[in-house]
C-alpha cells in the first residue's frame, strides 16, 4: 500500500524525547491533518505551549478517538495501563504502533489489550539521546536512523504497510525482525553499551576524570541518560543482556590475560578486529 499522507488524525501517547520528536517531525512533514498528543502533568502545559498539536490532553482515551494511527511512545511499565485505557475508544480500523526498546513484553501487551479491537505493529526507532523529555525533542531525530518493525505473526498487511511508510517518511531505514531477534540484537548494540558506559564512568576516580578528554566523553556520553528508564530496559531484556555481557567479558578476559603475561597478541588482535569492524560500520549504506 502506498499510503496517501496526510493521515486524517495522528495520535501520539507520550510527549517525551521520542514522542515529542515524532510529533515535531510529523507536523513539519505534514504527515497528518490533525495531531493529538497525550501528556501528563507537569509537561502537558509545556507541550501545549509549543503549539504543534491540535489537542493536548491528559486523557488517553480522548487522545485516540477517531485516530487513524496511534503511536505509543511510553515506557513499558506504563504501556499496559494506557493500552487498557484506550482500547474501548479506538476505531475498529485504527492502527497502533509503539516505540518500546524491548519488544517481546511490548508485543504481549499490545496483543493482550488490542486483540479484536484494533490493528497493531511493533516498532522501535533506534534513535534517542542522553537527555530525556519534550524539551530535547527535535524534528530531525529519526533522519538516518534504523526503525525496526516487529509485526505479529498474523499482521494486517495494511497496518504493516502504513507503519513502515510512516517511519520511512520520518527519515528512517526500516528493518523487519521477529520480536525475540530484535531483543537479542538490540541487547548487544544498545542495552549492553549503556551498562558498559555506566560501569566505565563509575570505575574512574575524580582525579582521572579531571584529565578526561573527548575520547572519554564520546565513549561515556550515554551514561548520562535517565537511570530509571535504563534500569527498566535492562531488567526487561536481562536474559539477552546477560548473553551479550558474557561474550564481552570473554573477549575482555583474553585481553586481560595478554596484558598480565606481557604479550601483545590477544590485545593486538582485539584492536585490529575492532578497528576493521568499526570502519566497516561507518561505511555501511544509510
From TrEMBL:
GO terms for molecular function: NAD+ binding; prephenate dehydrogenase (NAD+) activity; prephenate dehydrogenase (NADP+) activity. SUPFAM superfamilies: 6-phosphogluconate dehydrogenase C-terminal domain-like (SSF48179), NAD(P)-binding Rossmann-fold domains (SSF51735). Pfam families: PDH_C, PDH_N. InterPro entries: 6-PGluconate_DH-like_C_sf, NAD(P)-bd_dom_sf, PDH_C, PDH_N, Preph/Arog_dehydrog, Prephen_DH. Keywords: Oxidoreductase. This is Prephenate dehydrogenase. Its EC number is 1.3.1.12. Residues 8-286 form the Prephenate/arogenate dehydrogenase domain. One of its GO terms (biological process) is tyrosine biosynthetic process.
Amino acid at each position: 500500500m502506498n499510503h496517501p499522507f496526510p493521515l486524517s488524525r495522528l495520535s501520539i501517547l507520550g510527549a517525551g524525547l521520542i514522542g515529542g520528536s515524532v510529533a515535531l517531525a510529523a507536523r513539519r512533514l505534514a504527515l497528518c491533518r490533525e495531531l493529538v498528543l497525550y501528556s501528563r502533568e507537569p509537561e502537558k502545559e509545556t507541550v501545549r505551549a509549543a503549539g504543534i498539536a491540535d489537542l493536548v490532553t491528559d486523557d488517553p482515551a480522548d487522545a485516540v478517538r477517531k485516530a487513524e494511527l496511534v503511536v505509543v511512545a511510553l515506557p513499558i511499565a506504563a504501556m499496559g495501563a494506557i493500552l487498557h485505557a484506550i482500547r474501548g475508544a479506538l476505531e475498529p480500523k485504527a492502527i497502533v504502533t509503539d516505540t518500546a526498546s524491548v519488544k517481546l513484553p511490548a508485543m504481549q501487551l499490545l496483543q493482550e489489550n488490542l486483540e479484536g479491537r484494533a490493528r497493531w505493529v511493533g516498532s522501535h526507532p533506534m534513535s534517542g539521546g542522553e537527555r530525556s523529555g519534550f524539551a530535547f525533542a527535535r524534528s530531525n531525530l529519526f533522519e538516518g536512523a534504523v526503525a525496526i518493525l516487529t509485526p505479529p505473526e498474523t499482521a494486517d498487511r495494511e497496518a504493516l504497510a502504513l507503519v513502515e511508510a510512516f517511519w520511512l517518511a520520518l527519515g528512517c531505514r526500516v528493518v523487519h525482525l521477529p520480536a525475540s531477534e530484535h531483543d537479542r540484537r538490540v541487547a548487544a548494540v544498545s542495552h549492553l553499551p549503556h551498562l558498559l558506559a555506566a560501569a566505565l564512568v563509575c570505575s574512574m576516580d575524580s582525579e582521572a576524570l579531571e584529565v578526561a578528554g573527548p575520547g572519554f566523553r564520546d565513549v561515556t556520553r550515554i551514561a548520562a541518560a535517565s537511570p530509571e528508564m535504563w534500569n527498566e530496559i535492562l531488567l526487561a531484556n536481562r536474559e539477552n543482556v546477560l548473553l551479550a555481557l558474557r561474550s564481552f567479558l570473554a573477549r575482555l578476559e583474553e585481553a586481560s590475560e595478554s596484558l598480565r603475561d606481557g604479550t601483545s597478541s590477544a590485545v593486538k588482535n582485539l584492536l585490529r578486529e575492532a578497528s576493521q569492524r568499526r570502519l566497516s560500520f561507518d561505511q555501511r549504506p544509510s
